[in-house]
Amino acid sequence: METQRFEIVPAQSQIDWIGRKVTGAHNGTIKVKQGSIVLTEGSLTDGEVTIDMSTINILDVTDSALNAQFAGHLASDDFFSIDKFPTASFEIISAQEVGNNHYHIEGNLTIKEITHAAGFDATVNYYGDSLTLAGKLIVDRTKYAIRFRSGNFFKNLGDNLIYNDFEIGINVTANLKN
């Protein structure tokens, strides 16, 4: 049984995020710090990715002062507590091929040192010495002690409500480790 380990290339990988509220949405990126993906007999079997939360970036707020204020708020204890928890991670527990290069991945998502099972569909393209993995994960932020303006914990928020679910788009490139 041939096993190949691919190391994630942080400069060619990133996490895209979208958070929604009653009056709209915000989006941005977060850099990947490190990780690996394992193929056994050409099929995805294992892997993990570490996300550098200190690199959270907001793309849709163009005013620099407002963008810096928003980034500071996301870094605060209202959201990700980045000073205390500088990384988040996803560890693949199982991957089932559901079609040509398409997988359903189950694993453990850790944010703020709180871990919950999570699953998502992904496409894995394998090019000999490199591969790409892309998928989208929906996360309930309240499971990770991120409750700011959540309708589950605060009443009468009106237009200030922030929806509990946010999207994480995973886009990684990895090269074969020799």
Tags for this entry?
single chain, 178 residues, Lipocalin, nine-stranded antiparallel β-sheet, 1 helix, 7% helix, elongated
Structural class assignment:
mainly beta
Largest sheet: 9 strands, antiparallel
Q: Supply Rg.
A: 17 Å
CATH superfamily: Lipid/polyisoprenoid-binding, YceI-like
Q: Percent of residues in beta strands?
A: over 45%
Number of helices: 1
Q: What number is the mean pLDDT?
A: 86
- Label the overall shape: elongated
* Helical fraction: under 10%
Which spans have pLDDT < 50 for at least 5 consecutive residues?
148-161
**Span from first to last CA?**
17 Å
The secondary-structure element order is: EEEEHEEEEE
Please give the CATH architecture. Answer: Beta Barrel
Structurally, how many domains make up the residues?
1
Top CATH class = Mainly Beta
**Could you state the oligomeric state of the chains shown?**
single chain
Looking at the structure, the CATH topology is Lipocalin
Tally of extended strands?
Answer: 9
Short description:
With 178 residues, the protein is mostly beta strands. It has one helix spanning 64-75; strands at residues 3-8, 14-21, 24-40, 43-58, 87-99, 102-111, 114-126, 130-140, 162-176. It has one domain (3-176): Lipocalin.
